[in-house]
Amino acid sequence: MQDNTKKKIIAVATNLFLTKGYEDTRISDIIEGLGLTKGAIYHHFKSKEDIFNAVVEEIGNKNIQLFDEIKNDSSLNGVEKLSKIVHTSFSNKNIDMIIGISPNLLDSPKLLSSFINEINDVTIPKYIYPIVNEGVEDGSIHTKHSAELAEMIAVLLNIWLNPLIFKNETSSIFNKIEIMNAALDKFNIQLFDSSLIEKIKKVENKKI
């Protein structure tokens, strides 16, 4: 019963965050949408931030299988796995949904802290570092510093290119991609090939 209530809270909150936005959604809106008491909400979540984190985790879990499949694909070498994960991330409706419901993280210290912890605790150790290390071992990635390179890639992708932290103009996005490709070329890594850049251009053009 408790699990069902928690799932309902997450489902209602997700819909409200998508339609009203995080900032304009109040706990009272979630209570009204559920038909539950305030106590029932706070039995499962301490705050709106906690509910938001649960929503993001629920959406993000849908990506885990995709990323695990890429990581475990024996037909790909390290640099190919890294490139495929980036391609998947930039053409992924679940990630678009997370961006769509999220506030500017600089205005929400607790959410920013949770986001950075996720990078440190999951993104780097579970995905980027093992793949970079594999690339070094198979010769597709050239570095003596796998851990530091993995951290740099994570910061560039998840923070520097993140529209929830940096409000990038379209031209700035492509300038950053060009700089990132140039910086990573030293390690034999190109995360953004011409096909991915074209996909991003189409998405950005739709926003205009």
Automatic annotation (TrEMBL):
GO MF entries: DNA binding
Chain segments annotated as transmembrane: none
Keyword DNA-binding set for record: yes
InterPro entries hit by this protein: Homeodomain-like_sf (IPR009057), HTH-type_Tx_Regulator (IPR050624), HTH_TetR (IPR001647)
The entry's DNA-binding region: 26-45
Repressor is among the record's keywords: yes
Cited Pfam families: TetR_N
Domain HTH tetR-type, first and last residues per copy: 3-63
Entry keyword set: DNA-binding, Repressor
PANTHER family cross-referenced by the UniProt entry: ACREF/ENVCD OPERON REPRESSOR-RELATED, ACREF_ENVCD OPERON REPRESSOR-RELATED
Protein name: TetR/AcrR family transcriptional regulator
Species the sequence originates in: Lysinibacillus mangiferihumi
